[in-house]
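S1.2 Input.
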Amino acid sequence: MKHSRKKTDNPSPSLPEEDFFRDQEAKRAKATFVKALEKERQKQSLSKVSFSRKMERSLTFYSRLVDDSYTGSTVKSMSRAAVSLGKRLCIDLKDPEE
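S1.3 Output.
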């Protein structure tokens, strides 16, 4: 018989405002990535379709990737896009004030 954890067992439940700020930070990070990706795609004169083909992915995949409100893109997906442009994905941590 498996023992399941109850929600009340969580020693530090997330507060709604913390969730809001986490979501906002994820959207901000994604928007920064999308801006850089699109700038480089246009610099290389790649259409959305040709870039999708270069990534070996569908146009739908590309659309989700550049939708800054969709925060479900994986690091692997973002890295694939960067490599397809001859770049590499860099992730860093910053203080909240920056």
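S1.4 Remarks. The radius of gyration is 18 Å.
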